[in-house]
User: Fold Cystatin domain-containing protein from Graphocephala atropunctata.
Amino acid sequence: MIKFIFVFCASFLLVLLPVYGVPGGLSPADPNDQAVQEAAKFAVSEVDKKSNSLFSSKLIVVKEAKTQVVAGKNYFLKLQLVETNCRKDSTVDSSCTAAPDKVIQECDVVVYHRPWQNHRELTSVKCTPSSDNSVRRPQRDVLVGGLSSADPNDAGVKEAAKFAVSEVDKKSNSLFSSKLLVVKEARTQVVAGTNYYLKLQLVETNCRKDSASNSDCSPAPD
Assistant:
């Protein structure tokens, strides 16, 4: 009787292992699998939350996927993503395109998923500029951590400048709003997102901070 139970249990385990994988071991996964794609989409949204950029990132491709059975499942993914022209406070959809001056990032991420509790967590992320020249868009070389010149009229620079002026106003004890005259110089730094180093000219206007700022605001005479 004991021998029969042992054989039955062993057979049952042999049936389960091919389905669920070896606990603790890494198993290759199809990058196009729905669960992998959902984990990748979640990872991109979490990377965006940690980034100080004003713009959203977009997934280009899942280059590689592996899974690990734990108390749930870990997804080890190699992703390619790029910053788009869509702001984070807007909806990211198919109309969002890669910003022309942005480097394609290659990110190694780990997403932990506990499906019975509908819980996902990004437990590890490391992003570097992609070295895959077959997918890199033509662009000037950008050194990670280094400063690169930027076009003062670039949309990303303009948005950063507008944000900077609003923050300057918040810290100022003046009753009147400031207005951006010109972006004199702009440089960017690639980090986990983009830092904008800007030299701005602005002036205090005749519009109070508690009123809506618009193009009718003109420089205060004094």
The domain at 147-208 is CATH 3.10.450.10 (Nuclear Transport Factor 2; Chain: A,). The radius of gyration is 25 Å.
